[in-house]
Design goal:
Elements lengths: L6 H7 L14 E2 H25 L6 H19 L7 E2 L1 H21 L12 H10 L2 H20 L15 H80 L7 H22 L13 E3 H10 L7 E8 L7 E3 L2 H17 L3 E8 L3 E8 L27 H12 L3 E9 L2 E12 H4 L1 H5 L1
Parallel strand pairs: 4-6
Antiparallel strand pairs: 1-2, 3-5, 6-7, 7-9, 8-9
Length: 446
């Protein structure tokens, strides 16, 4: 029976983290930030020139233009930068916005401090950060804005004005400071919460689409398997009959006897596999004593059919505390999923494959290790996708894809890694992990 899981569990089973814990998801297009800054630079230049030459008010124009020129230089340098896929990480974006805050603070210092109406532009970088960055980065940027506003409320050049000048009352300046601080904190909290909610919804939709796509791929593979089982039934029966006839005709001491025995065993195994493929899944609720077994017994049964000469296959079971061994359903998903993982390890192992079963009161774990060539490093992130087949000299694709999909139906989380000795790869490791409450039938009944 297929196991359905909510979108939040899909993230956990795919090894994904929540939006606030996934910095890679914060990548922002560099071109977008560059264009925003060009617009800001244009606005700063226009304001300075209008006040200096249009209104005729005296500004420290050389220093102010120097500050704007610094932003121009930084923007030109960023224009020629070529980050991966044209995107910047969260730290780089936060530093970029932090520079914008400091550059604006210096301009405001030269042009009247918080008495300058353009002091409200402090809210711009905070709003951008709250929209695209994590709350931690936004909080740091908000603290930077509050600190800059606090300094500017006390220390700044005179506000440009017609003679005899304009001196704002201290209480009015304090009100401007409160307005900037409250606006910064409000936008940082409100916009960040709304953006996080949108990201969570979007990520949940993406995870659901991924799960549906995997189910469709598995259904397609299942259709091919059913067709193959139907088409292979007749020729396999012919092979079995032919082997039996040859066994009767060949003398017992013939050197071909062992070969015929191997052919007979493999033909019988193929018939068992085809019978399992053609068996309809049981839609009833399991309740008989044969429907459940200890986890280690299920693993041993899945490993038994994949033993072969030349490879030592050891199954070891051990408790990590005083909790009893989990009792699990003898489901096709669990047997075939574990069997495919173990078969892959035996296929690529050179001398030995170990299967370690362990459990404690909170989780159960199966770790499959082999001493083969390991997974190609460039493919570790793609393992589990269908038709990915470049491990060593063999194939890696549908077997692992089917195993991962079937095991995830049981609530498992699967991880792939290489075992290393110093700098040399010493084999592959597949870790399968369940929350005990999802796997243990005894816990669920209790």
């Amino acid at each position: 029976m297929a196991h359905s899981e909510p979108a939040s569990d899909i993230f956990e089973n795919r090894g994904l983290s929540a939006p606030e814990q996934q910095p890679a998801a914060r990548a922002v297009r560099l071109r977008t930030l560059v264009w925003i800054r060009w617009i800001a630079i244009g606005g700063q230049l226009a304001a300075l020139l209008v006040v200096q030459f249009g209104l005729g008010w005296d500004l420290p124009i050389d220093a102010a233009l120097g500050v704007v020129a610094a932003a121009v230089v930084i923007n030109i340098l960023m224009t020629f930068r070529r980050p991966a896929r044209g995107r910047l990480g969260e730290l780089e974006v936060a530093v970029y916005l932090g520079f914008d805050v400091l550059q604006l603070a210096v301009l405001l210092y030269l042009t009247g401090g918080l008495g300058n109406p353009f002091a409200l532009l402090f809210l711009g970088p905070v709003t951008v950060s709250a929209t695209i960055l994590s709350r931690r980065a936004t909080s740091v940027l908000a603290v930077l804005v509050v600190a800059a506003a606090t300094v500017l409320s006390v220390y700044h050049a005179p506000l440009p004005w017609a003679e005899p000048g304009l001196a704002l009352p201290p209480i009015y300046v304090a009100g401007l400071w409160v307005a900037v601080v409250v606006g910064t904190l409000f936008l940082a909290g409100y916009v960040s919460s709304m953006a996080a909610e949108v990201r969570r919804t979007s990520d949940a939709l993406t995870a659901t689409q991924l799960a549906l796509a995997r189910e469709q791929q598995l259904s397609a593979v299942g259709g091919l398997a059913a067709a193959a089982a139907h088409e292979l039934g007749s020729p396999l029966a012919t092979i079995a009959v032919t082997v039996k006839e040859l066994s009767r005709e060949i003398p017992p001491d013939s050197p071909l006897g062992d070969d015929l025995r191997i052919l007979q065993e493999e033909a019988d195994r193929c018939r068992e596999i085809l019978a399992e493929l053609g068996r309809a899944p049981d839609s009833g609720d399991p309740g008989g004593p044969m429907d459940t077994a200890m986890l280690s017994d299920i693993v041993a049964a899945a490993a038994q059919r994949h033993r072969r000469d030349g490879i030592a296959l050891d199954v070891i079971a051990a408790a990590l505390d005083d909790s009893p061994e989990p009792v699990v359903l003898r489901s096709p998903e669990l047997l075939h999923g574990l069997g495919n993982v173990i078969q892959n390890a035996v296929q690529f192992g050179e001398r030995a494959v170990s299967v370690e079963v362990s459990w404690d009161e909170s989780e159960a774990r199966v770790e499959v290790r082999d001493d083969g060539p390991g997974f190609p490093p460039g493919m570790l992130d793609r393992i589990g996708e269908p038709y990915v087949s470049k491990r060593g000299d063999g194939h890696l694709g549908l077997g692992i894809f089917i195993a991962q999909t079937l095991l995830e139906r049981t609530g498992a989380e699967i991880g792939f890694a290489n075992l290393r000795d110093a700098s040399r790869v010493e084999g592959a490791e597949v870790t399968i992990r369940w929350r005990r409450a999802m796997l243990d039938v005894a816990d669920r009944k209790g």
